[in-house]
Amino acid sequence: MHCVYDTIYRQISYRKVWQCPQRTWTPKRGAEVWREPSGNSNGLTVDRQGRLVVCEHGNRRVSRIESDGRLTVLADAYGGRRLNSPNDVVVRSDGCIYFTDPPYGIEPEQREQPCNGVYRILPDGTLERLADDFDRPNGLAFSPDERVLYIDDSPRRHVRAFDVLPDGQIANSRLFADMDHPQPGSPDGMKVDRNGNVYVTGATGVWVFEPDGTHLGVIVTPERPANCAWGDDDRKTLYITARSSLYRVRVKIAGAP
After folding, report:
1. What is the pTM of this model?
2. 33: in domain
3. Measured between alpha carbons, how far is 50 from 242 in angstroms, rounded to an integer?
């Protein structure tokens, strides 16, 4: 794995609580509360205008923080029924927002949707369901050329790949990576680097796969990881959230923008 990353940097600890606020972290100031309450925010991404797009697990919606700080609700229902609990989100270059909707944030009796779906929000606000055959879809990421969408299914402990059609729909579902492992931990957060390598948090650390699905190895973390994101000016630092800590790893290949 030395071909992909160098060393794990120091651990930055913070308290992980289910009702915790959103926090920011900088090397000089450490972790600071940024938004509270956060609606049990989970997956986060930034759109092409630099606005933060948020999966609010507890509020069962996808929202966006505008440049002036206002909050805009982008999606909270499909077919007249409330979403389950949006989990992770990614924005395509055409402005479409793709997100997963497992039921992790609700009780069984609160469920209104007939499936745990994968959705797309069009720039005009239209919400479309793209897939309905997942057990519990979780992390997702586009290949650098946006021709492939990767989505992991946590209980099945695997990652699927889909072709992205010219109209943004997805097709040709196939198994990309089997992440079954005797240790606890299922595929969760996901990112892709500029060369198309796929990084998925799972049992023992962050698993790294080549674009053809070849397993390169695991970035082993002291705690079971949950999510990951590219950072720093050169996008060569992978930040990893875990059960009670935030970690960072310097890599040799920059993250895809």
Report:
1. 0.91
2. no
3. 25
Which domain range does residue 108 map to? 39-133
Phi, psi of 212 (to 5 degrees): -90, 5
What is residue 19's predicted lDDT score, i.e. its pLDDT? Answer: 52
Closest C-alpha to 52, from 72, 27, 28, 75:
72
Is residue 99 within 8 Å of residue 118, measured between CB atoms?
A: yes
Element (H, E) at 96: none
Least Cα distance to 139 among 194, 204, 186, 79 occurs for: 186
Question: 247 and 190: one domain?
Answer: yes
Rounded CA-CA distance 153/125 in Å is 26
d(CA 25, CA 123): 30
**Tokens standing for residue 182:** 């005797």
Q: Three-class SS string for 218-236?
A: EEECCCCEEEEEEECCCCC
Per residue in 66-104, pLDDT (tens digit) is 999 999 999 999 999 999 999 999 999 999 999 999 999
Q: Indicate whether 61 and 119 sit together in one domain.
A: yes
CA 139 – CA 190 distance, rounded (Å): 5
Residue range 45-56, pLDDT digits in tens: 999 999 999 999
Nearest Cα to Cα of residue 187 among 214, 226, 219: 226
Tell me the residue ranges of DSSP E strands in 123-242. Answer: 127-131, 137-142, 148-153, 158-164, 170-178, 190-192, 198-202, 205-209, 215-220, 225-231, 237-242
Clarify whether residues 149 and 252 are in a common domain. yes
